[in-house]
Each structure stands twice: as C-alpha cells, then as structure tokens.
Amino acid sequence: KMYDEQFRPQLHFSPKEKWMNDPNGMVYYKGEYHLFYQYYPHDTVWGPMHWGHAISKDLIHWEELPVALYPDELGQIFSGSAVIDQQNTSGLKTTDEDVMVAIFTHHGEDHEKQSIAYSNDKGRTWTKYKGNPVIDNPGLKDFRDPKVFWHEDSQKWIMSLACGDHIQFYASPNLLEWDYLSEFGRDYGNHGGVWECPDLIQLAVEGTNETKWVLIVSVNPGGPNGGSAVQYFVGDFNGTTFTCLDDMNRVKWADYGRDFYAAVSWSHSTEPIWIGWMNNWQYANTVPTHPGRGAMSIPRKLYLRKKNENLVLVQVPIDLKSLQKNTHLATATLPIKPDQPFQMQLHDSQVMIEAKLEKIAGSSFAFTLKGEHERIEMVFDREKREFSIDRTNSGQLSFSEHFSTVDIMPIETVEDFMIILDRTSIEVFFNQGEHVMTELIFPTERAFTLELEAINGEVHLSDMLICSLESIWK
Ligand code: FRU
Predict the structure, then answer these.
(1) Looking at the predicted structure, is the pLDDT value of residue 329 above 90?
(2) Among 197, 260, 277, which is best to mutate for testing ligand 1, by the most ligand atoms less than 8 A from CB?
(3) Is the minimum distance from the CB of 79 to ligand 1 under 6 angstroms?
(4) CB-ligand 1 contact for 21 (6 Å cutoff)
(5) Does the pLDDT value for residue 474 go beyond 80?
(6) Can you say whether residue 91 is alpha, beta or left, with left for phi > 0 and alpha for psi between -120 and 50 degrees?
(7) Can you tell me the ipTM of this complex?
(8) Quick check: 232 and 254 in contact, CB under 8 A?
(9) d(CA 280, ligand 1 centre) in Å
(10) How large is the average pLDDT for residues 114-126?
(11) Looking at ligand 1, which atom is closest to the CA of residue 228?
(12) Are the beta carbons of 464 and 379 closer than 8 angstroms?
C-alpha cells in the first residue's frame, strides 16, 4: 500500500519519495492551498534544490503535483514565497487567472540573489522571469529566503530577506524593481547561528481589536534544545522600518521542540496560518525514513496573546475533527491519584489527546507512551516549571549522535493540553497553543499504552478527548 511505510507520517504532508526541507511559496488561490518545498528529486539527502509542489483544499489532505521550479544557469532554487498579483502590478498576467508570482533565491556558487517566476494557470506551470535576478547580491555571503506581502498602507510589496545575522527589508511597486528599506536584528534575539527564512506578519491580539507585527526568524544552529529553531520578534512596521517592542536580550521561541524549522505563513489565506519543516538540520540527512526524507508540521493558526505586559505567539493546530474515529470522550472530571495512573491502549499510530487540567496538587504530571520495550516520556514538572520530552528510549536513535535527547521547555502552569501523535512525531500544545513542542520519534513498535500519572498528589482532568485519526492518505 502506498504511503503506509513504517515511518510514513499519516497526518503530516511528506512527498511520495526523496528529499524535502523548507516549506516555500505557500499561497492560497481559488480554494487551493499551495505548498511548495525545497526538494531534491534524485536522492534522499539534500542536493541541488528544486521547488516541489503539493496542493490541498483543507490543509489536511494533499495532492503532490509535478516539480514547479528546476535549477538553472543562475543556480539552485532556494527558499522563498509566492503571492497573487491581483492588480497585475508586475504586468506578467496573460490569462483570465490572476498571475501567481514566486519570489525565491537563486543560489549560485557563493552568490545568492533574488529571482522571480510566474504562473498564469493556478500554479500548474511556471516561467522564470527574463530579467532575473530582480535583486542582485550586494556582497553578502548569506542573502536569501525572500518572503513578500502586499502592504496596504504604503501600496507596495514588502520583502524580508535573511542576511546572515540580520534581516533586510525591500519595497517594490511591481515585484520587479526593488528598493532597499532598512534592516533589523544585528543586536536582537538569538545569534547562535545563521538567520534564515524570515516572515513579517500582522497578527491579531486576542481579545482586542489591536494587531501587531511579528517578525519570524529561523536560526541554525542556536535552538533552545540544540540545532535549528524558530524565533520571533513582536513590534511595529511603518512601511519602512520594523521596530521591536520586546526587550533586546529576550529570545522568544515559537516552538521549544527540536523539530520545527523554517516555518512561514500562507499568503492570501483568510486567517494567518503557517507550517514548518518537521526536522532539525543536526540530523535531517540521516533520519531513518524510506523512500523519502522530510515531513511538514500540522498547519497552525496564529495570533498573539497578552501575558502581563508581554505579547506571545499562540499556535492552534487546524481542526482535525474530520479525521476523528474511535472517539473516547469523557466530559466528567477524572481524578488521577498517585500510584493509580490512567491507562489506555492506543490502537492507531495517529492519535489526538486533549484535556483540561482542573487541578494539579502534586509535584509533577507525566504523560508516557509505553510500548513493550520502547517508551516516550513527557513530564510537566511543577517545581522546576518545565515540561520535558524524553526520547532516549523512543525507538531508532543510532542514525545520529544528536537525536537521543531529553528536550525541555519552560512553562509556569498547565491549564490544558493537546497532543497530536503521528507515526514519527509528537506535537504538544499547552494552554491553547501558547507553549508548543514538536519532536520526531522513530518507534519500531506499533502498540502503545498511553499512561497519565500524577506524582505526589492528585491531578484532575476534565473534557478529555482521546481519539484515533484517519490517515490523510486514504
Ligand atoms: C533553511 C535553508 C534556507 C535555504 C534552504 C536551502 O533550512 O538553509 O536558508 O534557502 O534551506 O535548501
């Protein structure tokens, strides 16, 4: 059976075969969510980059389409974005369809520059622009990953670009001619590695009519638990400059797990939604999957929440209800006493687990997935105020010395949780998406028992939902 290999994600997009990294060019047009991605169609390790392509009507089920962009004499096709040029500012429209324009990095030998390609048939076929590159290299080694959006207030296209240790902004009336605007970030955030894949998005502040601008920046390495990870900055954007409202020395991580990278948002979707590459550059090239390597996260809706005087990013996974089967629902309060763990046999490799924590009296609360020999242990430690995922016994580990780890996320309290479990991943969302961790696992066993355990005091759960989910490939 297709798409049913031992380590094939059943809820997450992965190409049929070969290598995939960053999500690229996500754009919504006429009922279709487009997902392009860094793709090497000839091997299962990173190689000369193409843009692979898939589409979805619901962000759950995906159909893979032919490769959209091939490397050429200007170089490989590195990461970038896509927009719908509704007003035909570029003059590249040739049919009744709006023209879809991809803006990407041409990566030549040590020479990165920005180019465009366009499609007049809903993203099915692509033509590279004759005047490429549209932004040549100004003398920077790292100069890539253009993310473009239409800025209403200044009636211009705005591009964010990753430039090693900072982000540069450019503006254009037509996607063809670009002017440098400003830069941000040399003295902000985490600089443990090179900055990549920026995204500047306007997000609603929960419970208000306010919006704020959020600058997303991936960094590799430098992540909170090692390797690659995504940070963000909250601020204002006036059409020229991004001003950060956060404390200069404060690093805000979007996801504390090891496996969420290069995440950016969809263009022209009605709500802000993003997706990340569920992997870490530390071991991406050796994960034990076959016949491909690389999967995306579950798409997540984005907004901001006020916490004290601080604005934090909230991520809520898109609704997976349509996939639910074998639902176990318990609305009544479930007390879990120390030494009497709640146990439930999980029958599928893809499961959603949700509950509210009404009370937690003890020192910690453990969620364990127990196989015969393998186990994944997750613990919320109230005293240390942290949540950890221990994958040192989670199955296959030997493909990288960096994989077998206990990864940690600071968290003060847990009000509720949602866990999305798939054949090779765990995504945990606490407090309605305020604290998120995404981790890969490669268990060789299929049958797991979910165990919820209260340590040194009772835990009361309510509104519990545990359900198996249908495979998205059916
Ligand atoms: C991020 C990244 C990008 C680059 C692409 C190359 O993972 O390094 O900066 O455009 O991957 O595949």
Answers:
(1) no
(2) 197
(3) yes
(4) yes
(5) yes
(6) left
(7) 0.98
(8) yes
(9) 12
(10) 98
(11) 7
(12) no
Structure confidence by residue, pLDDT tens digits, 142-197: 999 999 999 999 999 999 999 999 999 999 999 999 999 999 999 999 999 999 99
The finding on whether 49 has its CB within 6 A of some atom of ligand 1 is yes
For residues 127 and 76, what is the distance between their CA atoms, to the nearest angstrom? 15
CB of 197 closer than 6 A to ligand 1? yes
**pLDDT given for residue 1 in this prediction:** 60
Confidence category of residue 327, pLDDT binned at 50, 70, 90: confident
Decide if 22 is catalytic.
yes
Judged by DSSP in three states, 438 sits in strand
**What is the model's pLDDT at position 155?**
98
* Ligand 1 atom index nearest CA of 145: 10
Q: CA 196 to CA 45: how far, in whole Å?
A: 20
User: What is the atom index within ligand 1 of the atom nearest the CA of 49?
Assistant: 12
Tokens 């793709």 belong to which residue?
39
The greatest distance separating any two alpha carbons of the chain, rounded to the nearest whole angstrom, comes to 69
C-alpha 165 – ligand 1 centre gap (Å): 15
Residue type, 280: N
Mutate to test the pocket of ligand 1, among 18, 19, 20, 22 (most ligand atoms within 8 A of CB): 22
Judge if the beta carbon of residue 262 lies within 6 A of ligand 1. Answer: yes
H or E element: which one contains 302? strand 300-307
Domains of the chain, with CATH numbers?
18-317 (2.115.10.20), 321-469 (2.60.120.560)
DSSP three-state, residue 286? helix
**Count of C-beta atoms within a 10 Å radius of residue 73:** 6
As given in the structure block, the two tokens for residue 199 are 């995204």
What residues pair up with 376 in beta bridges, in sequence order?
369
Ligand 1 centroid from CA 370, angstroms: 36
- Phi/psi for 403 (5° steps) reads -85, -35
ω into 221 cis (within 30 of 0)? yes
